[in-house]
Protein: CLRN1 protein
Amino acid sequence: MPAQQKKIIFCVAGVLSFACALGTAAAIGTRRWVTGTVLCKTGALLVNASGQELEKFIGEIQYGLFYGERVRQCGLGGRPFQFSFFPDLLKVIPASIHVSVILFCTVLMVFALVGAGFFMFNAFGSPYETLHGPIGLYLWSFIACCCGCLIMILFSSEVKIHHLSEKIANYKEGSFTFKTHSEQFANSFWIVLVCSLVHFLNALLIRFAGFEFPFSKSKDSGTTTGPADLMY
Structure:
């Protein structure tokens, strides 16, 4: 492939990696990882609520990696409560999984920046054989993509298998019991998924830059003179 086309491909990959780093940094600081509703089971059972009456006992919850907010509904109106995972919920949540998610988010952000720098260096500089060449670009993209996949797997298991929303909703609740009514992953979680796909796309762009297409060959290579030409 011509050098100019390779520069364009590496520039596009570098911009995408840098955008992923910014997106991951923004996602880490938000509380839009999970949104949902929680049902005050104790209050609903006390009045035998059903149908539209259940709406008075359904509160809201949203949280991220560091903090969140829930609205407590037990028939007397909503009462908002803000919380933070560190150190408030550290004894309630699966701390090892939660810390691992934060760690892999940091690694994803760092390697996205590293990949962006090396993509730009390959586009405008003189690449070295290993660290700045195709092997290094594959390595940074592969590590970032794997980190994104691990983040989604670990956080999904924390929410779905360990029932993180219920543990948060029942935090410091003595006589009332809350149950998850509905929950869905929010914008920040899907940003990590998009970043993982982008790094996978970058790996394809690196491979695409190494292909030799017929239209990229020199025209002079097809015009040869010799005895074979005289036969026609």
Summary: Residues 87 and 108 are 24 Å apart (CA to CA). The radius of gyration is 26 Å.
